[in-house]
Design brief:
With about 190 residues, the chain is α+β, with helices and mostly antiparallel strands. It has a single domain, classed as Sandwich (Jelly Rolls), CATH 2.60.120. It is built from four helices and nine strands. The strands form two sheets. The protein has a six-stranded antiparallel β-sheet with strand order 1-2-3-9-5-7. A three-stranded antiparallel β-sheet has the order 4-8-6, with no helix packed on it. α1 runs antiparallel to α2. The longest helix is centred in the C-terminal third of the chain and has 20 residues.
């Protein structure tokens, strides 16, 4: 099975962007530009629309860059910090490439009581299928996130907290509009 995106190439983009040490807005703009250069027919490099997201208690902002049934690419982060549950995805691997800030995490089921290695700018971690983590995303943290697998299976976790716990219907509406825009773009090609 072939995929559009290569985690090693995404990691290289994140390392390059993180090395620039730019303010958040410039860092995100430059990351999107680098991704669009690497994947010119796939990344939505137009002016991005941020959407509020709350999943597993993790509250932040997400910008959708690519979405298909088998892969997605987003930028996620928070200027003030957040913590919560990673989610458990039985059919998707979730890669995080840190652009700025710090993410602390721990494996929820292992016998190990120590945290996982700290994720720092330019770093990469992968939440493999079926695993779950507790995490703290420090203030000013932004990461490139790549999901690979049956992407549609992530949507309930991504939307239910926002919709049923926070009653934030506008964020769900905006997310749906962004998904539709990216899917429509793929169908037009």
């Amino acid at each position: 099975m072939s995929y559009t995106f290569d985690p090693a190439a995404l990691h290289a983009v994140a390392q390059q962007a993180a090395g620039l040490q730019l303010p958040s807005d410039e860092l995100i703009t430059r990351t999107v530009e680098l991704l669009a250069e690497q994947y010119p027919d796939h990344i939505d490099a137009g002016p991005g629309r941020w959407v509020g997201s709350k999943a597993g208690g993790v509250l932040g902002k997400v910008r959708f860059l690519y979405f298909s049934p088998r892969e997605y690419v987003v930028i996620f982060g928070t200027p003030t910090g957040t913590q919560g549950f990673s989610g458990r995805y039985r059919h998707v691997d979730i890669h995080k490439f840190l652009l700025a800030g710090q993410i602390d995490s721990y494996d929820l089921e292992s016998e190990d009581t120590e945290p996982l290695p700290v994720l720092l700018p330019g770093g990469h971690t992968c939440l493999q299928r079926g695993h779950a983590r507790g995490l703290t995303i420090h203030p000013g943290s932004w990461h490139l996130e790549y999901g690979r697998g049956a992407v549609v299976t992530t949507l309930p976790f991504a939307m239910v907290d926002t919709l049923l716990v926070s009653l934030e219907f506008e964020s769900v509406r905006r997310s749906t509009v962004e998904f539709a825009k990216l899917v429509g773009r793929r169908l037009r090609r």
